[in-house]
From TrEMBL:
Entry's family note: Belongs to the GTP cyclohydrolase I type 2/NIF3 family.
Gene3D superfamilies in the cross-refs: 3.30.70.120, NIF3 (NGG1p interacting factor 3)-like
Protein name: GTP cyclohydrolase 1 type 2 homolog
Top-level lineage group: Bacteria
Acyltransferase is among the record's keywords: no
Entry-linked InterPro entries: DUF34/NIF3, DUF34/NIF3_bac, DUF34/NIF3_sf, N-reg_PII/ATP_PRibTrfase_C
Keywords: Metal-binding
Pfam families: DUF34_NIF3 (PF01784)
């Protein structure tokens, strides 16, 4: 299998276009056409992880966090980022990161946390907007079925749990071929009137190129009339965090013990425990403090995330409990998630979970 085959599959689940603007997900080191035979999965990519990959004969490391966030101007080994990248290149090991794009999909990082906590009726905490577009294309009646199916096959017309969704309006189009035209219908210099159908479909912006290629290939006209409109609709399956419910309510102290046990957490930093039962839970793996407002609006009793600063804890204002469980701790099960995703598709491909402890934060208890 080539790197491209593996990463194309991962990007079907978590498209690179869903990553945040500051992120650097994708192939960081390696040639996408190179073959790979064994992968090592880790939360972080460090020198020790590369050493483990070398020892275990792995030719690609798939990590959640990218080893490179900013541009590198020198490769002198002066810091751990340069040393890690240099060692990977020297030993022919590809590096691939699947970070905030995997955070931002239902079934991704936050859904895995919700699964570990046994939450029910899980949905996205903060859905994204601005990632959908609408295509309207005008097609002669003789080719409507062919063009519509082509754009469906290319990825348009998927809405929630439905596909091949479109709206079709009958009408007619007029045109007059000029001197250098080569019309499919009509003659040069004569106005033509053709019965047409306007096909409207919604599609994710990242699929635009393949949809347009399919449309042009199936459409009979020399000049295709079409409109593309950017949409601001919220997409319920794409966005940050997750919100769900415990099967049964718990008192706050019991819930913190449950949280510590289920997520294998050593320390929980939390705000004042409120005198009400805990059942509705908001989660956001990693640094998710910016979604506190959405957690409150969703009716959460607890917001579980990481990297809270001292003054930010005051923002709970006794509307809910903030529980900071640590960055590594909140995302550690991403490794398990990636293993499941890859093995489901490539049953005979060797995938290993790292045995290297990459959490840079230690606790003295």
């Amino acid at each position: 299998m080539t790197i491209k085959e593996l990463t194309n599959y991962l990007e079907q689940i978590a498209p690179l276009s869903y990553q945040e603007s500051y992120d650097n997900s994708g192939l960081i080191v390696g040639n996408s056409n190179d073959e790979v035979h064994r992968a090592l999965i880790s939360l972080d990519c460090t020198e020790d992880v590369v050493d483990e990959a070398i020892a275990k004969g792995c030719d690609i490391i798939i990590s959640h966090h990218p080893i490179v966030f900013k541009g590198l101007k020198r490769f002198t080994g002066s810091n751990y980022v340069e040393r890690t990248v240099m060692k990977a290149i020297q030993n022919g090991i590809a590096l691939y990161a699947i970070h905030t794009n995997l955070d931002n999909v239902l079934g991704g990082v936050n859904s895995k946390i919700a699964e570990k906590l046994g939450l029910e009726s899980v949905s996205i905490l903060s859905p994204k907007k601005g990632i959908l577009k609408k295509l309207a294309v005008f097609v002669p009646r003789t080719h409507v079925e062919e063009v519509r199916q082509a754009i469906f096959d290319a990825g348009a017309g998927h809405v929630g749990e439905y596909d091949e969704c479109s709206y079709n309006t009958a009408g007619y189009g007029t045109f007059r071929p000029l001197e250098n035209a080569n019309p499919t219908i009509g003659e040069v210099g004569a106005q033509e009137r053709v019965e047409e159908t306007k096909i409207e479909v919604v599609y994710p912006a990242y699929r635009e190129r393949q949809i347009l290629v399919a449309m042009f290939s199936a459409h009979p006209y020399e000049e295709v009339a079409y409109d593309i409109i950017a949409l601001e609709n919220l997409v319920s399956s794409i966005g940050a965090g997750a919100i769900g419910n415990l099967p049964e309510a718990m008192n706050p102290k019991a819930f913190l013990g449950y949280l510590k046990d289920r997520l294998n957490v050593q320390v929980i930093r939390h705000t004042h425990l409120l005198d009400k039962p805990i059942q509705r839970i908001a989660v956001c793996g990693g640094s998710g403090g910016q979604f506190l407002r959405e957690a409150k609006q969703s009716g959460a009793d607890v917001f579980i995330t990481a990297d809270y600063k001292y003054h930010e804890f005051f923002d709970a204002e006794d509307d809910l409990i903030i529980a900071d469980i640590g960055h590594y701790e909140s995302e550690q099960f991403t490794q398990e998630l990636l293993l499941e995703i890859i093995q489901k598709k490539f049953a005979n491909f060797a995938v290993l979970l790292t045995e290297t402890e990459t959490n840079p934060i230690k606790y003295f208890i």
